[in-house]
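Quick one: structure tokens for this chain, please?
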Amino acid sequence: VQLQASGGGLVQAGGSLRLSCAASERIFSLSAVGWFRQAPGKEREFVAAISGGRFSTWYANFVKGRFTISRDNAKNTVYLEMNSLKAEDTAVYYCAARDVGTWSPLKQDYGSWGQGTLVTVSS
């Protein structure tokens, strides 16, 4: 499945952005989808995930209460709503999909990746 991430941009600290991850295939609705991010000079890290089917969600501790992942299967799209953004949230954000419905925090478990969208938070 091909993924297209969008919605990044420049925002002030405390602001909000909504990222979108659009998929090319309808079967996407059965797949777990994760958002990861990679800051300059750092490893790509898990941010949030949503399972296929039952839409259970999981978050990294550093975004709990600030970010919300959701999906609209009619649009083959997963969203990441980001609120109360901090300078340390600055990174390229990637969406990724598994070929199963079970989520994972491990990037090697995801076979399809979007191209990334840059989020820059100014302090």
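Residues 51 and 76 are 14 Å apart (CA to CA).
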